[in-house]
Amino acid sequence: MKKALYIIGLTIISIGCGSKEEKLASVYNNDFEVMGNWSNKDQLTTDASHSGIYSTFTDSTFVFSQTMIASCKQLKNKSPKSITATVWAMSKLQNPKGKLVLSIDKNDKSVIWQGSDIQTTVKVPNKWELVQLKVDLKEPLTDDMVIKLYGLNEGKSKVYWDDFSLTFE
Fold this sequence. Notes:
Layout: H1 2-24, E1 27-30, E2 44-45, E3 55-58, E4 68-71, E5 82-91, E6 98-106, E7 109-117, E8 129-136, E9 145-153, E10 159-168
Antiparallel strand pairs: 1-10, 2-3, 3-10, 4-9, 5-8, 5-10, 6-7, 6-9
């Protein structure tokens, strides 16, 4: 009897852990600490970071930050109802002009492009603020789609970006 209860208990724990794994698999992060094959290493800096040592930046020369790319082919959940994108942003000036952008591309053409103004969030100079963007999806994602997340500078002031994240719900 004790053996049967022990096996049942282990089964319940295993099922519970499996559910947590599925939930964790729906979050993707990038904090620039893993020095991979970035498109422009000149945009990685140690001048300021939200976590770790490195962040990316935009300014009058570099309008786009480093881009976080997620291939839909690698996603477990192909039918999320929404994607929530976040990034920590900071500027030395008040109310910098820019956007956190999420785009979904298919065959190198944007099928969804949405941006969230950082001016409404990044109001205090030299203070990291969390910028969020939620995109509701009307159709399932397909394997030939690519999700891109990046910072867009619409002004001339320097903006630091760190800890990009995508959550599929």
